[in-house]
User: Fold Glucose-6-phosphate isomerase from Faecalibacillus intestinalis.
Amino acid sequence: MITLDLSKAKLAEDLGSYKEKVAEIHDMIRNKTGAGNDFLGWVELPENYDKEEVQLMKETAAKLREKVDVLLVCGIGGSYLGARAAIEAINGLYSDDKVEIIYVGNTFSSNYIHQVAKYIEDKDFAINVISKSGTTTETSISFRIFKEMCEKKYGKEGARERIVATTDREKGALKKLATDEGYVTFVVPDDIGGRYSVLTAVGLFPIAMAGIDIDEMLKGAKDAMVKYNDANIETNDAYRYGVARQLLNKAGYSAEMFVTYELQLNNVAEWWKQLYGESEGKENKGILPHSAVFSTDLHSLGQFIQEGSKVLYETIFEVKNPQNDMIIPSDPDDLDGLNYLAGKSVDYVNKRACEGTIDAHVNTGNVPNIIISLDKMDAYGFGYMVYFFEMSCAMSVYFLGVNPFNQPGVEVYKKNMFKLLGKPGY
Ligand SMILES: O=P(O)(O)OC[C@H]1O[C@H](O)[C@H](O)[C@@H](O)[C@@H]1O
Assistant:
């Protein structure tokens, strides 16, 4: 399902020489003995997930899908990126599914919030408000605005049928509000942090609302869970990727560019950035996670990658089989000189662009390339991919020597902002 090619990664060391260290970290993850060990619930989630809750998610989604045109997913960071990544990667950017998914609660931009409010005014909508802490300001402000809109439009009772809350089992303002209002509520497990939560209700409910098969997604994750439960660096590709990136870091590369060749994978990259950036960017350490979509960005960033300063390596995330393809037509006049491609598919061109670019960057530009290929981006493939990256991230960050599961630095701006806003207690 996933293959890893490190032959163009220009690694100066042999991964095999870290066999013992990797086996130790493997035990640390499995036996929950490392830093942040109370946030390892994602490791066995594909097997241990709450089956009844998943059933309720499917039933709630099926009912709401009959009723509404739009679902507002109200959340930020780990509380929306995974769902958005899945929905766009699988359904595309201009989906013909009957429910349109719109993301709010991820910004203080008044322009954006206003525009969404106008856009949904005459549409039938539901809201899934998602926050593990239940106190995130961006999410709370948007939720207050759209909840009011919903209650005005449908009345208290109608709004109750259209609002679903995903939050902590017991704690937080959102939990209290959801209980008081009587909303259907799903749980973010205590032992799973936001950036590892896409396969909990945080991701699964919106994904089910987009008409995607969440059982298949969990099945993909489960198969990956079995596959990557292997202490051996020689055979575990998740660990090989995790360690390879740290060896590149050690060799002086401080940025990783996650490259896809599909516009609809842009939010997979955004999800990946939070996963890696928030997990390892602490104690003045870590690799800057960056991303690009090729060939689009080859026309803007391509020059820098080819000939600019050698700060980055690329991780090419390739999907072997596109969901859709098109044939390039023949033209009798051939004024654009494209007839040499007539009859070929657009994806054929995309794949040759990928091959040619890897060759140019690696062999002429001297940029290390890690190549990760996924067979197919469907629900199963997405679940499989999520688990691959989560496991390689845990290995990679423990290998670096920091706690992969906290994010203390994120609070600094919040404190300043709260003080400026006059929030009580700041
Ligand atoms: O789910 P929430 O508690 O609202 O948190 C949403 C996001 O915001 C925080 O600031 C954290 O840095 C993220 O890790 C988290 O995913």
Summary: The longest strand covers residues 312-321. The chain has 15 helices and ten strands.
